[in-house]
Amino acid sequence: xxxxxxxxxxxxxxxxxxxxxxxxxxxxxxxxxxxxxxxxxxxxxxxxxxxxxxxxxxxxxxxxxxxxxxxxxxxxxxxxxxxxxxxxxxxxxxxxxxxxxxxxxxxxxxxxxxxxxxxxxxxxxxxxxxxxxxxxxxxxxxxxxxxxxxxx
Length: 152
Hints:
Organism: Flavobacterium jejuense
Helix content: under 10%
Protein name: Phage tail protein
Number of domains: 1
CATH class: Mainly Beta
Low-confidence stretches: none
Pfam families: Phage_T4_gp19 (PF06841)
Number of strands: 9
């Protein structure tokens, strides 16, 4: 049933179309980068000095940044990143990012196409702080598309 209630962003899942995939591979602390922009080309019209015309050229997408706590669990996503960044073997993967309701059912879903890892980072270690170590994966992708959910 459709609702006009604002959607909260703290309950979500990320599913990679990768093999192998382990339970840790769907659990992330944050997802950032579902952003589309339009490149434009400026044209200055003769005789009109107040403004320039801007014409759309192509759309572009921001890099996707995934963060999660570092664990000792085996991770297919981490192996995928390592294989690309260390061995220069790239296997583009598709992802499904879902915002979930209180029952764990998707209410908004985005399909991310043809992602490849471009960066993998582990947060700082500091003997003076008791903080969780975070691994950050940055992916470049071709595009994303919202998938309609019937009833929402």
